[in-house]
Here is the input.
Amino acid sequence: MADLDAIRLLTEGVAGWNAGRAGLRRPVDLTHVRIRNATLPGIDLRDVDLNGAVLERVDLRGARLSGALVNGVTAEDVLLDRSELAGAELKGSDFKWVALRHASLRGVFARQSRIRFSSLRAADLSRATLDGVHVYNSDLTDAVVAGAVVVPPVFLRRVAAEPGGLDRFRALGCDIEEAYRPLEHEWHDFDGLRIATDGEDHDLVEHDSRVFPISAGRYDFFVSHASADTDDVAAPLAAALRAEGFRVWIDQRFVAPRDDLATVIGFGIRSSRYGIVVLSERYFGRRWTELEYEALARAEVFLVLHGVSPEKLEEIRPGLSDRVAVSSALGAGGMARVIAESVRRPRHHLFGRLGDDRP
Here is the structure.
């Protein structure tokens, strides 16, 4: 069974995982996890046990999986271009619509696995062991097989290769069916494959009937506000930002009855690239807004001034008068446009780090 500490670290995204994986128990156990609609390029999964995992619509381009156990894995709509799988095990795995272009599979041990509707264009299979592998309707153009070992039967059906390319596989002992040409209309445009980021059904890790959302980069903005300012400022601003194409975390949308507020709000803050603080006379002095304010001290924050002049704001919390970026008097659409422009074309004077009193 997968290690929950490993799953929780994975939810921190690629940077968090790569930085913290050395502290996990060995061997790192991610067996039987289901990862779907996830973007994890460059993740370091070397020597990780992924046996029985399910990968659905996952971007793993440039991932490092050398020495990993990839046995019994089901992968569909997965990008593994330029990934490193040297010495990995692939026993009883099923790859469908998987891009392995320019991937390194040197010395991989593949037994009783299927690769279908996939691209291994320019993949390096040198010194690989292919035992009972079935490759169907896939692109093997320019694949390297020097020193590979074939344990029959290895079937290649409806495969594409450069002129004379299939001769290299035939010389290794592969059973090649050339009577039927590849069905290219069943191939994917891997360059056009996009991982969904809309809504909540993305960047998910599932295990043992539990769902663990990957937090890194999940939202663009976390809106911190007093409850009294929800209807007038926070909710309209969140809606206007969503209309601009941004992903926004706001409590009225994501906090449900019985939720542990500290957990849910903490996840929202960690998951967001930027914070927005609606500063009014009602903001400070309340437990949750104070906690959010402190948690946002490490984030880049846009300040929205609502009903309070900059001079008054200085009285409420010293050091903030020069941090006001947007006035609520602009209306939701006006505030959203200013913030959107600042994100798309950074103007560092418009936002700062809370608690940073440098001019």
Q: What stands out?
A: Residues 97 and 118 are 5 Å apart (CA to CA). The two ends are 52 Å apart (CA to CA). Confidence is low (pLDDT under 50) at residues 347-359.
